[in-house]
Amino acid sequence: MSEHTRISDLLPEYVSGALEPEGRQAVEKHLAECSECRADLALWGYAAGVVQESSQAVSAPRRLADQALARTRAGGMTAGRKPANSLRRGAPILRRGALKLQHGGQILRAQIPLVQREIWPASAAVMALGYIAALIAEHSGFVYALAPLIAAACVSLIYGPENDPAFELALSTPTSPRQILLARLALVFGYNLGLVLVATLGLLPVLPMPVLGELALAWLAPMTFLSAAALLLSLWIGAPNAISVTYVAWLVQLLSGPLRSPQMGVRLSPAVTEILSAYQGLWQSPPALLALSALLFAAAIWLAGRSESGRLAA
Amino acid sequence: MDLALERNIPAVDNDRDLIRQIAVGNEDALRRLYDAYGQRMVAYALRITGDMAAAEEAVQESLVAVWQGAGKYRGDSRAITWLLGIVHHKALNQVRGRAVASLDAHESLANDPPASDPLPDEQVIAHEQRRMVRAGLKALSLEHRLALELVFYQGLSLNEVAEVCGCPVGTVKSRLNYAKASLRGALDRAGLREGSEHE
What ipTM is given for this predicted complex? Predict the structure, then answer.
């Protein structure tokens, strides 16, 4: 970013007085030599004047605070606590179900703009690269090697103060942290699942594909397990560390087969060979991976609600 | 030339204590918080809804949310950022499902009075520039006007604006740049922008 662009971005805060002294000095130094920024400064000055003039003319009725307090008393609301869930009282079962579904849909929709928006195009772009590589090499393994990596990276970025500018606000709404985490997990994991399915369907006409069970072995179970591990680790040690750990785990799995192969000429001690063999065996057992995934997801969701800070360490 | 504008925004040192008191049920603490920030909350809600009754309803709902959510406030954000984030959410709920008022209610509160006496040239130009900027602001979409309100009236940093609007800070910068280009275009078309002759 050029100095001109950097200073140009600071001008609104300079005009409003929100800038720190160092920022103010940098702006003033640049203004002395840039006529374009001086013109923009004048423009922002006019805009600020108009905005302030109109907002200052608004008056706040004193009664609003008293009326809000009267509402809290009438609703039996306790300070610092969420209201009792009206869905639990008296509503017929079908209507309750429909309302809960509607509420779930609202939570999902509300989370879409709050998930880091770079996640959507980035995962699609990486998956497209894997798809192209699979076509060129005539080997579907490229798609299936990438799928768990993309899913793990995305899932580790869905929750926590460093990943969400409105995190503190989100914690203060009646939606619980667990519901927020679940909704984002469903959105992001579902999206990545869709991407891999589309890539698989795209490969069907050109490459021989394994039967469904082998397909699950190739990517579905590892993708779910790596995502679950990434989510739990991101709550504990932060997203960058979670991504590093899960990537290393997956790369070791990918390399453990070739490393043990005699053609590679790598001499491993029997103990290391045995460990690598057991490690690879775990990744090739979908029931075990899916059971572990369920445990890890449950632990992450439980901890998100318990810590309410978004990070176990915080 | 220092164009930093003087604003009379109340400074409350013990916001966090006040919110802690609200969390344990102190009604007077909520009234004091409203005394300190109520005007800014109502002004922001009105900027979103364009209707005073809807703005008051949104602020009332926000105060109820503050009463219930005070226990979760950790003090990482300034109190005003936290409050405006809640107002943002509640006021958008008010306008959702109905057409946003085409006339910004703020405009009816602050129009330039007609010049009764002949003005010197500089004042005529300044008056005209203000009029064009006001017209340019009116033509902006809600999200662009909100970014300007949060920066220029509420005095928030760009990071705080991002927190209130629930978007990345890069989006806030884009919105401000778009607003600037739009206002610049309005002044250029009227031949009123300072420094426009250099480009």
Answer: 0.79
